[in-house]
Design brief:
- There is one protein chain.
- This protein has 475 residues and is of the alpha+beta class.
- The protein folds into four domains: 2-135, Rna Polymerase Sigma Factor, Chain: A; 190-236, no CATH class; 251-396, no CATH class; 416-472, SH3 Domains (SH3 type barrels).
- It is 42% helix and 18% strand.
- It has helices at residues 2-19, 23-45, 49-68, 76-94, 116-135, 138-148, 154-161, 165-186, 190-203, 209-217, 219-236, 243-256, 351-354, and strands at residues 270-274, 278-285, 295-297, 300-303, 313-322, 334-338, 344-348, 360-362, 373-378, 387-396, 416-419, 424-426, 436-438, 443-449, 455-460, 465-469.
- A hairpin with a 4-residue loop joins strand 15 (455-460) and strand 16 (465-469).
- Helix 2 packs antiparallel against helix 3 (49-68), helix 2 (23-45) packs across helix 4 and helix 4 (76-94) crosses helix 5 (116-135).
- The longest helix is centred in the first third of the chain and has 23 residues, at 23-45.
- The chain starts with a helix and ends in a 6-residue tail after the last strand.
- 28% of the residues are buried.
Length: 475
């Protein structure tokens, strides 16, 4: 016990030093916790060692940013494991399990004499449980895991989610109910589910929630539903006037926007939606316009509600209607927004800034300072009713060298300008633990090369400096 208390105290001191800008302190934390976190992440995803390392790398980057921003946790080690667990579950959401089974660390029993069939059943049940947790609405999953795994009280969960203690308890209850419903649906007879799918398609309505849950976890029934739709499309191809209904649908969509945005052209603010999402309004907030809410931008001052939007900056917002139920199979709910001409993507506005009930994330393809079109993906929850949600992106006009930093650091005497063609982690020394990250396309100043030529010391346009791989620099 004294050794554990000493370790906690040491972690807290290291976290404090990281917040004060001590890069060697973070390197110590990294070396101390990374191996165990990789093993833990690997036991959750079990896809490849590379996936586990990617999860932990992303977690440690977030930890470094949080500590530097002055947001240390009460206890570091449990916080690291919570972040790793949540990141692993989010990865499961994006990429479903393959044929590999879970590691024995999650089995809950190390009895070598246990029947192989029983071991496999345990592995399969745990694999399904993690998959089902990944499909829960974010708030429900957070509340349930905080109660069951982190041992938090309803009051602590309520404070974490910004709701009342009663609401936190209700989120936990609904999470349990959803897990049970999903398990029961997965175990349902496929023949019965297929009859429900046929009936729903014939009547032109959504299938029942029970059937939708089953299809989500059953490859055979998902293929059966695709076959139903595919046959219908093949039959429609026999109609020589096939293009007419499609044209009518586009006209109807354009009319439903009330003329608040244009469709098609390169200057369009909204260029696509998927998963049944409908755009009801869109707006381009120009420099000098009053900000509709408070938001912050990387490397730029915070804009308060009602404050003037800065010169060279644009805010693109849209109100969308998300239908009730689950999205169509194989589709995600999303809306794609476009930056105004001569501007580039800076960041997506967060759901907390917009006070949204349905969270969203920018797609992985969204690149800071490079993208002009950005897809925002909504969490694919099964919604009890349709919801109106406001989303938005921040765009800005880049400098002549492509920098998106308001007061960028320019090359000094003896330095050469350069640019990154691959995302890199900045390191205090070649082969050392990272201390920061740099984005694709970000301008920089080249200071010197290592004796081997494999590493280059650079200073980014935001003033952060460190070693990067020479092969990552644009030639």
């Amino acid at each position: 016990m004294p050794a554990l208390m000493s370790l906690r105290h040491d972690d807290a001191e290291l976290a404090r030093r990281v917040g004060a800008g001590d890069s060697t302190a973070f390197a110590t934390l990294d070396a101390r916790h990374r191996p165990a976190l990789i093993r833990y992440a690997g036991s959750l995803v079990r896809r490849s060692e590379h996936d586990a390392e990617d999860i932990v790398q992303d977690v440690l980057i977030s930890v470094h940013e949080a500590l530097r921003a002055g947001n240390p946790p009460d206890e570091l080690q449990p916080w690291l494991y919570r972040l790793t667990r949540n990141r692993a579950i989010n990865m499961v959401r994006r990429a479903r399990w393959g044929e590999q089974s879970l590691d024995s660390e999650l089995i809950g029993s190390r009895d070598d004499h246990q029947e192989p069939e029983a071991v496999l059943r345990r592995k399969d049940a745990l694999r399904c449980l993690i998959d089902d947790l990944a499909d829960l609405p974010v708030r429900q999953r957070t509340a349930l895991l905080a109660r069951e795994l982190d041992g938090q009280s309803p009051e602590q969960v309520a404070a974490q989610l910004g709701v009342t203690a009663g609401a936190a308890q209700m989120l936990t209850i609904r999470a349990r109910e959803n897990l049970i419903k999903t398990r029961d649906a997965r175990d349902s007879d496929c023949d019965e589910i297929r009859l429900v799918l046929l009936d729903a398609y014939e009547r032109g309505v959504r299938s029942s929630e029970h059937a939708s849950r089953h299809v989500k976890g059953c490859d055979a029934c998902r293929a059966y539903r695709r076959d139903i739709r595919g046959l219908s499309k093949q039959l429609q191809a026999l109609n020589p006037s096939l293009g007419l209904p499609l044209l009518a649908g586009v006209v109807k969509l354009a009319a439903s926007t009330g003329g608040k945005f244009t469709l098609g052209a390169g200057a369009a603010l909204v260029i696509a939606t998927t998963g049944g999402v409908i755009v009801t309004a869109a707006k381009h907030h120009r420099p000098g316009d009053r900000a509709p809410f408070r938001f912050t931008a990387a490397g730029r001052p915070t804009i308060k509600t009602g404050g003037a939007i800065a010169k060279g900056t644009a805010l693109v917002t849209a109100r969308v209607q998300i239908p009730a139920g689950a999205p169509p199979a194989g589709q995600r709910r999303s809306v794609t927004l476009s930056c105004p001409p001569k501007t580039k993507y800076v960041r997506a506005l967060s759901d907390t800034e917009q006070r949204a009930d349905v969270p969203w994330n920018p797609s992985r393809e969204a690149a800071f300072g490079l993208s002009t079109r950005v897809r925002l993906d909504f969490v694919d929850d099964v919604l009890p009713r349709a919801k109106a949600v406001d989303v938005g992106i921040l765009c800005a006009k880049p400098a002549a060298n492509g920098s998106m930093i308001l007061h960028q650091r320019l090359p000094q005497r003896g330095e050469r300008p350069g640019r990154l063609c691959a995302q890199q982690y900045l390191r205090p020394a070649p082969d050392a633990v990272m201390t920061g990250s740099a984005q694709v396309g970000q301008p920089l100043s080249i200071v010197r090369r290592s004796p081997s030529g494999k590493w280059t010391f650079v200073v980014m346009d935001d003033g952060v400096r460190g070693w990067v791989k020479t092969s990552a620099l644009c030639r």
